[in-house]
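Could someone model benzoic acid with this protein?
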Amino acid sequence: MALRLGDVVPDFTQDSTEGPLNFYEWAGDSWIVLFSHPKDFTPVCTTELGAVARLKPEFDQRNVKVIALSVDDSDSHRGWVGDIEETQGCAVNYPILADPDRKVADLYDMIHPNANNTLTVRSVFIIDPAKKLRLTLTYPASTGRNFPELLRVIDSLQLTDNYSVATPVNWQDGDDCVIVPALQDPEVLKEKFPKGYTVVKPYLRMTPQPNR
Ligand code: BEZ
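Reply:
Sure, complex below.
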């Protein structure tokens, strides 16, 4: 069955560009972005893997490790990373899992047979330090992903895990947040939101980002 939000994700050991890798050990206490791409030596994937390498400082700042995967083997991956560095202006600075036996692709449901019988689709999994799945995305092979959007979601998850807020449409780090509807006690509201809040509707209350 496909993984669902809140599930503990499965562990695995698989070869990678950095040698054999046990997922849970490698992940440690970090947040994880695991993303699959259809194939090595393809144009959209080349741009995606380069963009992720350039964003590494942003992921590091958020205690996030990134890891890519396709059904190609590690020799193929190692051949391709040279092209990525040459064309995208940044060396690949994270592991790429080799999955020719589809062990990980099957565990994480990354092959969608009606899209393509053999290649992984563009899946994304955001996994928290407790190994729980917090976001999934599935993009078609023809559409490159927006990785700054993943950073935005991570900012939201890390904020809303620690404060009684949710983040509204198109929110960016530093913008006002909404107070979760479950919180109604005026004394608790005063204590949790010392900067105050605006009641737009009883269920829509805006407050400055609490950790800023
Ligand atoms: C690409 O990454 O460019 C790509 C991969 C598979 C199908 C189409 C495009």
